[in-house]
Structure of J domain-containing protein:
Amino acid sequence: HYDILGITRTATQAQIQKAYRRRCLATHPDKLPNGDRQAFDMVSRAYEVLGCERKRALYDRFGEG
């Protein structure tokens, strides 16, 4: 998930949110004629996990699950 958002494991919540917004603009299928729905879904899923402290802690400890 960190790679998808282009951030490191030490990123703050503010950095995660900023990276998410940047990636959304780059992949949103409704905003771009060549938007990639699959890439946008991956960005959304990454933010769903990393944007929540509890989910992020579980992901950091156990990985994708």
Summary: Residues 13-27 form the longest helix (15 residues).
